[in-house]
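Request:
You are asked to prepare a plain-text protein record giving the amino acid sequence and the backbone structure tokens, at your earliest convenience.
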Amino acid sequence: MPRFRGPKIQEIAVLSLLALVIAAVFTGAAHYIVFAEQPARLQLADGPALQQWKPSYSRGFVMQATLAVVGGACGIAAFFLEQRDGRLLAGAFILLGNWPYTVLVILPVNRKLQAIEVAQAGGESRSLLIRWGRLHAVRDLLGILATIAFLWAAVD
């Protein structure tokens, strides 16, 4: 029986692909927060806006933190195990950059918001929620840049 001798199918770089998919999911979640959830939250009165933010932040933190770590780890592993492409390292470090950015820049705002009782919500909590939204938009940008780096490495 003759064997098919068509063009060779390139091996799929699984870790590179996984890093790309995870970065895209991270970006989609961050994008949703920036363009859907945060604007909707800010249409609420001060108390309900803060009340909605608290559990939303807690759940979102776990999801996005995990995605950043796993996606970054996949990017680093892909660099060392699949291909020595600096774009993979760039994407990984950009995605992992969400951690220090969150700890150093966003966490102080988060702590202030968490400390405000819903019944005490007012101008200060609204101002902090607006600031939080602007700061979170940087996470969206980092996700976009990481996704572009991983995609660039995948299509080249």
Remarks:
- The chain has five helices and no strands.
- Confidence is low (pLDDT under 50) at residues 4-11.
